[in-house]
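Students often ask what a 'structure token' actually looks like in practice. Rather than answer in the abstract, let us consider ABC transporter substrate-binding protein, a protein of 409 residues. Its sequence is given first.
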Amino acid sequence: MVDQKLRARRLTRVGGPVAAGLAVLLALSACGGSIGGGSDGGDGGSGDPGPLKIGMLAPITGPAAPEGIALQRGFDLAIEHINDDGGVFGQPVEVVFIDDQADPATATQAAQRLVQQEEVDYIFGTITDDTTIAAATVADQAGVPMSQAIATALDYCSPHFWPFGETPTQLLTDLVPRMVEEFGGNVALVGNDYVFPRTYHEVSTQLIEEAGGTVVAEEYSPLGTSDWQPIITRLQGAEPDWILSAVVGGDAVSFVQQADQFGLLEGRGLTGVSVDQQFYPALAPQLEGRSQVVRYTDQLDSELNATFVEAYREAYDTQEPIPGVAGNAYDGMRFIAEAFEQAGSTDAEAVSEQIAEMEFEGLGGPVGFDPDNHVVQAPMYLTSIEAGSPYAVVEELGVVTDEQEKDCA
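Now compare that with the structural description of the same chain:
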């Protein structure tokens, strides 16, 4: 089994941003023993498998770059640690990276390249649900397993698709009633105009109504919006008690800054994915004092997380809050590596069987999957965004159930 204690050591920077669309093959050096229990492996009875090859998609340019860069960083650090612990099947894991620019057409072409030309064993990524669906469709047709690692509202289902991202139900079940109780029942919803924000707000609307509240405004704008004043004016006119925002990427920074500038935030609550950790460096004055529910925060009190935080800060020369998607990507890639090691094979059926049955010790506690609907099962945390200790844990919420009625198996 994987040694769950990361070694506290000096790290060099890995996986820095690359040019748009550039694929980089990384065969990171290995040392030490196997990541797993010393299995000799096997590839469907055809002998020992070759090196595990992962295709990684992330938008490190374009409107979702803040999340994409965080995803890549957590993933790259996982690969370095996996290879330092002996790799998979006793060999270094290889990575082919492509920037999908948060564009579904680019993601489709990238996934086709990964499965047809690069012949990867697994695809990891990406950020927006639209690009994830595009890549997952290609992967499914090719029989290649895939995972993503950011909050997701995907209704997509496949025997070999394993999303590590939190669902809207997991993010909002505890958060919404707390906000209604603290600020009031009149709620304004805002988001970018694509799958995740709209599904996020479908869930939030139901939870708001169950808590005795009312949605007084609901607004959407395309990714890449720079002028939010018209939407902010309409939100102000609805006189909400608080705002639930599913504005993402660089748009989140623009929206929150302009909402503050035009007085929308004065005396009102604000929460949602727009207050996530990756936005704190640009929005600290607007976010401090607010609450958020997350699966990962660098304030988690565990030896495993403390060592990860030290390694991340040294690798990327940052003292800012570590984004949740970076923690999810780190856990997710290590989980996948262990699944391949336990399967002893790169066969998709064998690997997915292991993923469905595994429980893995992640940075915030045990991580696993519902074997039927493939919803990730991991503890959630209520956090407080405070100066000096942003995203400090206020309460452990445990595993939040999301009983989606779909049979992915």
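One point worth highlighting: Confidence is low (pLDDT under 50) at residues 1-42. Ask yourself how you might have guessed this from the sequence alone, and why that guess would often be unreliable.
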